[in-house]
Amino acid sequence: MTKEDIVLVIKDIIATIAPDEELSGLTLSDPLREQIELDSMDFLDIVMELRKRYGVVVPEEDYGQLASLESCANYLEPAMAGKEMNIGV
Amino acid sequence: MAQPVPSSCETLIIGAGMSGLAAGIRMAMYGHDVLIVDRHSLWGGLNSFYKKAGRPFDVGLHALTNYVDKGVRGRPLSRILRQLRIPYEALQLGQQWGSESAFPDVKLEFSNDFELLRSQVAAEFPNEIDGFDRLSRLLAEYPDLPTAGIPVMARTRLAEYLSDPRLVDLLLLPILYYGSPTPHDIEWQSFVVLWKSLYEEGFARPRGGVRTILALLRDRYRESGGGLCMNSGVAEILRSDGRAIGVRLDDGQEIRCQRILSSAGLVETMALCGPELAAEYAPAKRAGRMTFVECISLLDRPLEELGHRKTITFFNTSERLAYEPPESPFSTTSGVICCPDHYEGQEPQHEPALRLTLRAHPEAWMNMPEAEYAAQKEKAWEAGHAAILPFAPDIRPYTQFVDTFTPRTIARFTGHAYGAVYGSPQKSPEGRTALEHLFLCGTDQGFLGIVGAMLSGIAMANQHALGAAASS
């Protein structure tokens, strides 16, 4: 997966866990928490969905790497390399 | 629909009430091998439903607290719906018409608009409104989730803001009745949770009552792949080296697991952990004793026709607030009058209903001979409805059918020592116990009300099961 793909994957996960949020205007670099309502319970869900859908494990000390779409893409790129996109589920 | 009891699972949850089901949904959603066991044939725990003489009854739920409109984010109700992936509309909530805290010579009305309560305080207690405003600003800033800390009682903190004891009593009356395990007072963290859920947010009711919520939870749990074994009471929590490693059921079967989440209550859970812990947590030392009788009367006409439009009236017949287990089997000096049909968009399920909740003496009811038990229930209804005449119409001539539940009923269906509705005064915000791998959720973890119970299950599942699994 490319970084662009990973951004789509993360947006798709957020659409599942926070269906009321408007995601079309999200910027790449601003922290997600400043743009939409996500609390620590929701970040746990992003981690759990990554694990469930892609088998990617994010250790707790790395949760901070998921702050923005851009940092998600950078951090997840090595782990997501070679995996198939699985969105719209 | 009976499911065979497996011999092992990853996480075992004791109790299929609101908190256990919510915790189970969270784990099952993420492929966790989770099993809920419950001693009873019907899920729901303290909040359940039944039929008697062909008439449907709800127990527990007077109101769903923590009401917020659809789209309001970051509040307990929106958080649980998001975490459980339940759409807001599925609850079919109708808002309360309006409630009150009433003493003989003064009352405060409140609704889902905090401004009503504020204006009532300003009108009745003009000298206190500045303190009330400081207090409400302080409480609005508090986090929704209780945090660990040294317990302080609410009256002590309230005295820093309010000087008229009558106002303190008026504000405490609904809060104590909806969540205090302690006579006359409540621990500050619980007070904050209840203040937000009753006054800042407010009351609503799902169309169809508690059945609607329980059906949503049960279906969500099953479709997520969680296991549910009813008629499966836990006789003992199996232990090894200070850790919980499984359970033995009433019928002798053992289930091994990596962790246990118990919604049975603090003393009730520790009673399953061998004689030493059972003695340390003996009910006489640690259990709460606040329990109630509730008379549910079905009427031949709507209460509105008798001139009563309140949703919930918290009443107190004397000058100072009475909230302690009474000396006699029941007391009519304070209580709650709930009209479950007085919510927007609700149709009576069968006949219009009125529920009257009175404080009860726990032991008095437990060992009462059958004939006296029936007579005392009748007496509670008669005396209760006579005592509330300053606050509600006389429904006795219009009553078609009455069912009354007592501390004995509560103890039978929840397993709580003394039938204590709000559990032990000792709460465990982190959900930890004296044993590793054994955690609490529900009432004794420290969240309150139905939304609180679900939030408790979610928070404990996240913290002790999913968080651990996510990082491993």
Topology:
The complex is a heterodimer of chains A (89) and B (472).
Chain A: H1 3-17, H2 32-35, H3 40-54, H4 69-80
Helix pairs in contact in A: 1-3, 1-4
Chain B: E1 8-14, H1 18-29, E2 34-37, E3 48-52, E4 55-59, H2 76-84, E5 93-95, E6 99-102, E7 107-110, H3 114-124, H4 129-140, H5 154-158, H6 165-177, H7 188-201, E8 204-206, H8 210-223, E9 227-229, E10 234-240, E11 243-249, E12 254-262, H9 266-270, H10 275-280, H11 283-286, E13 291-299, E14 312-316, E15 330-338, E16 353-360, H12 362-366, H13 370-387, E17 399-405, H14 407-414, E18 438-440, H15 449-470
Parallel strand pairs in B: 1-2, 1-12, 2-9, 6-14, 12-18
Antiparallel strand pairs in B: 3-4, 5-8, 6-7, 10-11, 11-12, 13-16, 13-17, 14-15, 15-16
Helix pairs in contact in B: 1-8, 1-15, 2-15
Q: What is this entry, summarized?
A:
The complex is a heterodimer of chains A (89) and B (472). By secondary structure, chain A is mostly helical. Chain A has helices spanning 3-17, 32-35, 40-54, 69-80.
